[in-house]
Amino acid sequence: MKKILVLMIALICLNLTALETEDLFLQQNINDTLALSAPLDVLQDSTAILNSEELLELTMIDSTNNYRKKLKTEMDSFISEIDFSVPISYFYNENFHIKTAIEPDIIIIKNGFTLLGSGLKNSVLLQTHLPFYKAKAKRDLIFLDNSNYNLVVPITVTYLGLGDQEMNRGFISYKKGNLFNITDFNIETSYLGHAGNWFNVNEKSSNFDIHLFYAKSFGELHFYSTKINQNFSSLRSTISTSDTICDDNLFENSVIFKNKFIDLGYKRSQAEVDTIRYDFEQYYLSKTITSEKNFFQASLEHFTGDYDFSSIRLLHHSEFALFRISNNGFYRTNAKHYLTSEITAGLKHLFISGEYINSNNKNKYKKYIGKIGTNFDLIKVGLNLGKQIQYLDEWCFSELSTSITIPTHFTDYMIENKTAYLIDAPDKYPNIKSNTKAQMHFDLDHQNFIDIGLSHIYCGNYKKAANTYNASNFDLFLKVQITPYFELYANIVNLFDNNDMFEQMNSVPGRHLNYGVKWIFVN
């Protein structure tokens, strides 16, 4: 935590320095426009009560106040809309761990480059890299990208959280355009650290990410650097040599040049998982064509070093009349590929679509999915019916999602449920999975609000070894926004002290309390 406090102080000082620089820039603008803002008779009349120096001072004060009022209005609007990329659940769910019964078989694309796990499970990769980036997901493809923040106003976003079992965590993000008063030179940098116990293992992390970019009319030059140093439960690694703890160290640098014709990138990664080391390079070439109704991107990537293969990635999306068509393709020379195609027809409040997935990634499978749903302001319902073939196993499935919002004079009530039911699923899959959240939203004055709710996760008939699990877990959560720049969070994990929690289907003792705070500094 000392590192976190020191970094916070340094970032705040950097904010103050940037503010002084902006004041000088503002003063120069005021001097340039003084003749237009001051009354002509006062400037010309030497017998006026105010001399020119006093007038200049008052004019600067008035202009500065107007400038800051306008700037504050713009930033308030910006803060209310921007997604700072850190999922709130990562800070009031226990120890950042993703709650899933089955390890996701996904392909992760980070800043255009394929992210290789080096023996780590996908859930570890997500919980490690996701807090630093915006995420877009399409079935088994997840894209992590930076926000490319380029406003002159510096912003520092801070999350701090505490919990029982000595679970402490902190996240700091700093964004600013025109860094060091260099036009179009911008920075985004973040630090994430945590320490505590999980499954009787003392876990900790110290992860850092920085993004520098320079944007001009001829193109954009981006530099990314990530340093990861963490220790976590060996349950999260496929190659760990330890029964209790797994060490993960990663250092990577990448450079990307983008213009309207082509994107070129180079990345160097050095990783060490326990005693196994990796050192490889990636080369990236991409071309994107867009129009009002169409998007097409083709990417070629080559790996060399400890990995040696190439990959091709094709993304396509088109809209015409009532129809939307999407295609995603991913192919590697080491015989791994992924393909999904989807066509959707939709009216204002009704949609129907079909999707086909063919994957030869880690778990070979095919999926055929039919979808139908409604989309109204107060109620949203979606139903997926499909068939999945994986290795020698074959089963049918249904997925129902429902969202209901009930507005009243004092509060809004919201209920969400997602339920998946599998028919004749293999042993390692649950026959039924359900996630339900009930929430009350209270609007207060000055854009403030209170959210309080209860979430329930159920996983039925999950077979592991010779045992069958029916895990059920309730979490109670609370969020209070005091201003758009300051929020408080708290939740109780495993509210009713169930013997088995959803995570890992292993016994976790007792209920757990986590609480935290988020605040934003804007200069």
How are the SSEs placed, and which strands pair?
Elements: H1 2-37, H2 40-44, H3 52-81, H4 89-92, E1 107-110, E2 113-114, H5 122-129, E3 134-138, E4 141-145, E5 155-163, E6 167-176, E7 185-198, E8 201-216, E9 219-233, E10 245-258, E11 263-273, E12 276-290, E13 294-305, E14 309-320, E15 323-332, E16 337-346, E17 350-359, E18 365-375, E19 379-390, E20 393-407, E21 412-423, E22 432-443, E23 449-464, E24 467-483, E25 486-493, E26 512-522
Parallel strand pairs: 1-4
Antiparallel strand pairs: 1-2, 3-4, 5-6, 5-26, 6-7, 7-8, 8-9, 9-10, 10-11, 11-12, 12-13, 13-14, 14-15, 15-16, 16-17, 17-18, 18-19, 19-20, 20-21, 21-22, 22-23, 23-24, 24-25, 25-26
Helix pairs in contact: 1-3
- Give the distance, in angstroms, between the N- and C-terminal Cα atoms: 25 Å
Based on CA inertia axes, which overall geometry fits? globular
The secondary structure category is: alpha+beta
What portion of residues belong to β-strands? over 45%
Rg, rounded, reads 26 Å
User: How many alpha or pi helices?
Assistant: 5
Low-confidence stretches: 8-55, 85-92, 502-507
Number of strand elements? 26
Main sheet overview = 22 strands, antiparallel, barrel
Helix share, percent = 10-25%
Indicate the mean pLDDT. Answer: 78
